[in-house]
UniProtKB/TrEMBL annotation:
Domain of life the protein comes from: Eukaryota
Keyword tags: DNA-binding, Nucleus, Signal
Chain ranges of the HTH CENPB-type domain: 83-154
Taxonomic placement: Eukaryota, Metazoa, Chordata, Craniata, Vertebrata
Major subcellular location class: nucleus
Name of the protein: HTH CENPB-type domain-containing protein
Amino acid sequence: ILMLILQYGACPVVVMAERKSYKKRNELSLQQKILLIKEHESSKKSIRALAEQFNCGKTQACTIINRKRDYMTAFEENADSNRKRICYKRGHEDINEATWKWFQATRALNIPLSGPLLQEKALQFARELKIEDFKASNGWLESFRRRHNISFNIICGESASVPESMTENWNTCLPELIKNYLPEDIWNMDETGLFFRALPDKTLVVKAEDCKRGKHSKEHLTVVICANIEGTFTKPWVIGKAQRPRCFRNLDLTKLPVTWRHNKKAWMTGDLFKEWISEFNRIQKLKNRKALLFLDNVPAHIWNVTLSNTTVKFFPDTTISCCQPMAQGVIQALKVNYRKHLLRSVLHKIEKNKKVEEIVKDITVFDSVVWIKSSVMNVSPHAVTNCYRKAGFSTEELTNEDEIEDNELEELTSETQLSLNMSQPLLASEYVDIDKDLSYAADTGPDFESQILNEIKGLSRNEDDAEDN
């Protein structure tokens, strides 16, 4: 510089390169991540739009959507909402999830469990998943217990708060259970499988056994209904395979006539049931009601959240069909109404000279959820009350004013069969019951653990694929 000054007589201007400023990373809290996930589910906003709305990077927004299962689980299990990161190894999380699913199913059968048994089962899942660096230490067990709010007495089967099937004479104990509750506070929830595109022809009916093995999950839905003795229904839930079927793409899912949920097999699961019962309890709390909820005892009906305004009772395992009000005619009435909606739509399309394959394909999931809601609303309160009476919840005499009338369904069924020249027609009564044995939740058969592992291994696949319709 001195030589330059001597040569040119002036001091040159030295320009320093500016240090590039980087925008400070805005790591969203768990609560903010939940808000982002819900915004994504209820709208069709792009990742870029979500990132701008929540003032975070596109990569972070995309990661949150991809890991929404983890964040939702942490939030539901009372994790610190101000926490910004959930750190664990993906492989170990697979073990945790498999162990939790197994725990839920085992506890649903009222089988006592211990800490060492949980550790042994976790090690077994680790071997099956080929994860070699996992150790089911006492530290892991304590972390697992805290994460799922499991207490020592519940694991050992000593807690009085654990729901147990009532094995005493049902007719004797039921009056004692309900005597302190008003009819509006006594509820029954049940699920049912539904072939939502099925026509009254044997050759067009998907086998329920195939669906039980996970096949044809796009052909069936699981419908969740809940009503009290007075005939008041909660908002129906419908569980399908896709998060957002193609027919939902331009819709706000929160404005559907039903609550839509999804998983790979379109079944009720422990996680979904926990969400359902938490919402049911929240509504009872808002209304300042104390509800008595009756359920059948299946592995999916388990939860680990506190129910402030809901008491749960399970039906005896051996008497579910005869003592559950929804199974005494409410579900059948729902399906009669649904088949009528479907056949009216089919007959309308026949007039447009469409082939049977085109007609079936044109029935969308959106059509189905609209028909399901209408079908539920068209089940009269008197019919529901009668079903409670049949199940022994009242000593009053049954009335026949609301007996299910199949005349219209029989006429629609016959007209459809003639119009489509069906080779193996079903009777109207057979048509209503075609999905009677359709699975709506995982069972606890000999291959249950294999089923859990298959589900865990499939989690990396894209579960958000759109259905055909």
